[in-house]
Amino acid sequence: MHREVGQSKLSISLSVMCLSDFLFITKILLFKAGKSSNWEDDGWGAWDEAETQEPGEEESSCKTQTNYWLQDCVLSLSPTNDLMVIAREQKAVFLVPKWKYSDKGKEEMQYAVGWSGSLNVEEGECVSSALCIPLASQKRSSTGRPDWTCIVVGFTSGYVRFYTENGVLLLAQLLNEDPVLQLKCRTYEIPRHPGVTEQNEELSILYPAAIVTIDGFSLFQSLRACRNQVARAAASGNENVQPPPLAYKKWGLQDVDAIIDHASVGIMTLSPFDQMKTASSIGGYNAAIKNSPPAMSQYVTVGSNPFTGFFFALEGSTQPLLSHVALAVASKLTSALFSAASGWLGWKSKHEEEPVQKQKPKVEPATPLAVRFGLPDSRRHGESICLSPCNTLAAVTDDFGRVILLDVTRGLAVRMWKGYRDAQIGWIQTVEDLHERETEKMDFSPFGNAQGPSRVAQFLVIYAPRRGILEVWSTQQGPRVGAFNVGKHCRLLYPGYKIMGLNNVTSQGWQPQTYQICLVDPVSGSMKTIHVPFHLALSDKKSERAKDMHLVKKLSALLKALEKILASERVPFSSLANITRTLMDTLKNQELESVDEGLLQFCSNKLKLLHLYESVSKLNSLSLQSETTISDNDLAKLLRLDEKEFVRFQTLLENYKQENTQPTVRFAEDKDSVLSVKMFLEYLEYEKDMINVKKLEEGEYVALGSLFFWKCLHGESSTKEMCHTLESAGFSPQVLLSLLLTLWLSKEKDILDKPQSVWCLHTMLSLLSKMKVAIDESWDSQSISPWWQQMRTACIQSENNGAALLSAHVGHAVTAQITDSVAEKKFSQTIVGADTDSWEALSLDTEYWKLLLKQLEDCLILQMLLNSKVSKRTTKVSSLQTEPLCRLSVKKLLEGGKGGIADTVAKWVFKQDLSFNVLELARKKDEESSEEPVETDSTVSLGESEAETGLETILKLLQLAYQQFPCSLESDVLYAHCCWEYIVIFNSAFLRVCIALMMWNTFVVKRLSAATYLMDKVGKAPKDRLCRRDVGMGDTAMTSFLGSCSDLLQILMEADIRSDEMHTPILDTEDAWVSVEGPVSIIELALEQKCIHYPLVEHHSILCAILYGIMRFSLKSMKPLSLFDSKGKNAFFKDLSSIQLLPSGDMDPNILSIRQQLLRKIVTAAVHCSSQKAKGISEEMSLSAEREKDWPVLAVGLAQPLQVNEDVIRRHYVYELYNYGLDQRGEEATLQVHDKEVLASQLLVLTGQRLAYALLHTQTKEGMELLARLPPTLCTWLKAMDPQDLQNVEVPIATTAKLVDKVIENLPENHGQYSLALNLMEAVEAISSS
């Protein structure tokens, strides 16, 4: 590999395009001695390999001298890299690339001879210049792609000839009688800016005193026609179609001593100032100018006197010359087509005798063109000029060993490099990658918007053959960005053009793979190209950042490759380990500067994980001998239970296992399934030498825990060795505890079948608790240990109550064991010789364990009740009765409110269709009432003895539930919830409306009216005494009542909408009972109810929701009736079927202000409750349906009917979420906000409060130092902030940094606070880094 001089290899690269010995063969073909110039006779294209060895012996004798042979040749490489021409004197070799296998068996591109021969037609003429121009395809399927490549060759005789890739002459033209000095081409480029003039394609030919430009479109059409005609003539020999004429211009360059090279800049339009300046210089004081600046073609020449000349040819000043194209075909039938009038010569074999003396074609005179200005330097002689891709700069070499950079627009030399004699030059244009720019938003540059156009950078490439170095410079005044040692015999090829024949439409489609610059090395026989990243053109500060982004992109590609290998399921474990280890060793052996630390760390972490997987697999493969069966006495002693408690506990689990049996399908492979290494690597990650588990699904978490602990829980693997292996690998005990508990709680059925696993869990939990950082050293008996709290939280959340109860008993036993040992050490001096086995040390954790055991036992009994069934009923049941009941957990019961347990049992009663007699039977304590459940309850659907047995089981479970929940399952409470469940069953929406309306008129409206006027009178949520006096129920019951009222009105509205689609039910009576008499049935009364007035019901529903919110959150200074005008107040508590005058039109602004204040208070209170819940502070809820209320959504829903701007409530909700430190939920809620600019302005203040607290109120040394470095404006603004308004000041600074990013993202750049937000972001970053 080539070493870059003074620059990191990751910044700029010199890569090999192909490796071949084609240059050796080409040298033989061009320099073979003793052969005549007539190559057709020699048959040199078919020389064998033995002959090609002779020049090699010559070369070895005089190696240094013969290495310079390439400098004497004319070289041209197609920009599409599909053809290369090397010519010397009359001979030429056309080379084409081919894929071949090297000596090492690697497939690589090599050049091979496609055609070779002599090109001279006139006597004594030699090749002086050549170009390979790819021509675009005209087919629809390959639009924009190269079709074929035309070789343009200039001769010392003045002829310009055009060939195909096979050496077939297409046409020839004598445009001037002087030798051709240089051929250059310009192809179409899409203008980068709207003001840039679109340039036409052209071929320019330089003569000693003239320059000829051929229009690209005309040339393209003529070459296509000639090529088609050659193909037809070769096939038939008699077709001849006249191609279109060729348009060209010929300028005679005057006032110049000598011209060596040129550059055609293209069409340019002067600015009005430059137009007046030029007119004054040429015409003097009285010069007149046109209204619009004229378009001119600019040409720049290098030579002597002047050293650099600038020529301007006005467009339209002369008509283009038309030259008729005479076709040249390899056929005797067309030999008579050559004539003087055509001006074109055809290709002919030199062995054919011309019957007629060829007449020299007429040469058109040149249009004089004087030099406008130049850079006069009589001693300096220019040697070459190279125009930049953007047509604004040009590099010139001279005989003094200088490289001069010209500004061709202003005609000035802007830079000079010394010490580059015989230099060869070229350009590289690099386009910015928008994906890299997107990560530069933190710089806040004018180009920070990733939606803008890509920037373009120009780099000058200088090859100094005398020093053997290739340098890359950033223009115009940039530094050297890279240098390579390449040898002293190379040739630098820079075409400066792409594909001819494209336009603004076809050039936007398929982008061909073209190179910009190429270095040919005749010694190694290789061709190299240069890649320069865009970031090297930026300033030092931005270049460092952009360089980092470039390296990140490069490293991410390498990381992706490694991750793909590691994620493959087909690669065996041994291969994965070897690949990762080899890559890591390779990185360690490289220099530190060229190795990225992150990549090395990534390989190291993956290798550690692979070693861990191997160690765990070995431990699991070692089968241990099964120990003796554990007796019940040993198990009871282990769990610290006496004989009576253990028998009760064992019976409870046995009954739970019977009631909880559910048929499941198991596959054979599930039993021995092992987590694959691919999934193992995906689940785990290293961070600061610690292993963390990624966010996984529950099944994936169980699979990972099963790999570590399942065999240990069965006693088939060493628990001690497994814990030691995992701890040594970097697992924290908290992560291991989480994996162990997740596995244990998910495998309930297997665990209940194997009591031995309880002993194994006790052993493993004891080992984990003894690990470092498991239990804090400062923990004492009067504080709660986070370690045991983590275990209790897992048990609380689990729906597998049997496994949770078992693990809780084990956790309690281990906690008591550790507490006893700590207490024994602490009080060993005072109780020396005392028997400590009979007492248990008290601790706060032990008390929490006892509370959890009681809760889990109650939950398990309730779950057993829900799993029990009476019998299979044949009668038709409701679809609601077929819905399965959800499984219970302690967490669900705690979050269900005071009525949650009764609500759960009521759903089970409704599902089983039990009569209330069964519920009462279970309450009877005497034996006589328990012996006759079937006889006294004739309404229960019972079958044979199985049903009776099922009923007896249910009665026992109900009695047990009553004993466990004497308050929650009190008769009135349970019956109330059962009543509600049966009301919901109505299939008829019409009947539902009628029944709900009857309930409203009979039971609800009077109490609701009393509650409303009471709350309006006191202006807040009334106390319990006032509620009982005026409404007849306590404050808690009234809150529940208002929520039920809201639900009832919602049922009314939903049922009223559906009732329009359903028919009124018809009440029929059996024929035998038609003459029945008596009171009117409740259904008949219901059907006599009038239809409700929907707007009035909605009006009451809004009031109920407001009252419910005030009572639920105990809001103060809020009178509910003040939220409505006189029309709204008068409409309340009227018959819901009557039509009342309701509020309409715009509301009073004062009322709207009160409404908005209420909704904001409700949202604030709801967020406060959410934050308390997130902190683990349990709050008792008064309703079982409380968890179903989404108060922020309800507040937004109330905003529209209350004529309050919904977006104001949404913004307030987002603000409060951030205020309470719930940033993740705040970020999600931001998506619903419409006016994000106002929200960003509000959040900016909150961010300032957080930062003010972190810097001003914590009074740390680092904070004071950082405060001194902040801008004065930001310091003043921060001091004005009041952090006391913050509800949560313990928000991590990294979270605040994300909030600042959101603020900046939503604030427009022209916003008054945008600069303040930028300063705030820098301050947050400084705090994060410190």
TrEMBL record:
<dbReference type="InterPro" id="IPR026059">
    <property type="entry name" value="Rab3GAP2"/>
</dbReference>
<feature type="domain" description="Rab3-GAP regulatory subunit N-terminal">
    <location>
        <begin position="69"/>
        <end position="493"/>
    </location>
</feature>
<dbReference type="InterPro" id="IPR029257">
    <property type="entry name" value="RAB3GAP2_C"/>
</dbReference>
<feature type="domain" description="Rab3GAP regulatory subunit C-terminal">
    <location>
        <begin position="988"/>
        <end position="1308"/>
    </location>
</feature>
<keyword id="KW-0963">Cytoplasm</keyword>
<keyword id="KW-0343">GTPase activation</keyword>
<dbReference type="GO" id="GO:0005737">
    <property type="term" value="C:cytoplasm"/>
</dbReference>
<dbReference type="InterPro" id="IPR032839">
    <property type="entry name" value="RAB3GAP_N"/>
</dbReference>
<protein>
    <submittedName>
        <fullName>RAB3 GTPase activating non-catalytic protein subunit 2</fullName>
    </submittedName>
</protein>
<feature type="domain" description="Rab3GAP regulatory subunit C-terminal">
    <location>
        <begin position="736"/>
        <end position="987"/>
    </location>
</feature>
<comment type="similarity">
    <text>Belongs to the Rab3-GAP regulatory subunit family.</text>
</comment>
<dbReference type="GO" id="GO:0005096">
    <property type="term" value="F:GTPase activator activity"/>
</dbReference>
<dbReference type="Pfam" id="PF14656">
    <property type="entry name" value="RAB3GAP2_C"/>
</dbReference>
<dbReference type="Pfam" id="PF14655">
    <property type="entry name" value="RAB3GAP2_N"/>
</dbReference>
